[in-house]
Amino acid sequence: MRAFYRGYNAATGRRAQQVRNLHVMREDGNFAGKQGLCGAPGWGVTHSPPVVIDPLPSAPPDGLVWCRSCVGHAAALVGQLNEFARIIAALNDHGDQECAS
Ligand SMILES: [Zn+2]
C-alpha cells in the first residue's frame, strides 16, 4: 500500500496550511493509483502534485493526520476491520468504566 497527500507546492516546497489528511492510495479498479480509498483525488493540479509515500508509513509525517475514511477502508482491505471494531469496542468499555468510577 501507498499513502499520499495533496497541496504540496512544487514551487516553494511547502505544504499548504489547510492540507492535513494523509490518504491511502487505491490500488485497484478504474482509479488505481489516482485516488484515495475515500475517493479523494490523488492527481495533481498545476504546481501541486500529490506527494506519494511508498510504502505506507506506520505514522503520518509531521503536521498530517490519517484520513479516517481511508484507514477504515484499508483495514477492511487487509482483513482487519473486525479487529479494528473490537479495539474500538474495548476502548468504549474502558471509557464506561472510567465514567462509573
Ligand atoms: Zn482519504
Short description:
The protein is α+β, with helices and mostly antiparallel strands. The chain contains two helices and six strands, in the order ββββββαα.
Textual characterization of the structure:
It is a single chain. The chain is α+β, with helices and mostly antiparallel strands and 101 residues long. It has helices at 68-77, 81-100; strands at 3-5, 8-9, 14-15, 21-24, 51-53, 65-66. The chain has one domain. The protein has two helices and six strands, in the order ββββββαα. The strands form two sheets. It has a four-stranded mixed β-sheet. A two-stranded antiparallel sheet has the order 2-3. Strand 2 (8-9) and strand 3 form a beta hairpin. The longest helix is centred in the C-terminal third of the chain and has 20 residues, at 81-100. The N and C termini lie far apart (42 Å). The structure holds zinc ion (ZN). Zinc ion (ZN) binds next to strand 4 and helix 1.
Topology:
Elements: E1 3-5, E2 8-9, E3 14-15, E4 21-24, E5 51-53, E6 65-66, H1 68-77, H2 81-100
Parallel strand pairs: 4-6
Antiparallel strand pairs: 1-4, 1-5, 2-3
Bound molecules: zinc ion.
Zinc ion binds at residues 21, 23, 36, 38, 40, 67, 69-70.
Strand order, largest beta sheet: 5-1-4-6
Please compute the radius of gyration using only Cα atoms.
16 Å
Counting structural domains, the number is 1
* Number of helices, where a helix is a run of at least 4 consecutive DSSP H or I residues: 2
The low-confidence runs, each spanning 5 or more residues with pLDDT under 50, are none
- Secondary structure tally: strands: 6
Shape: globular
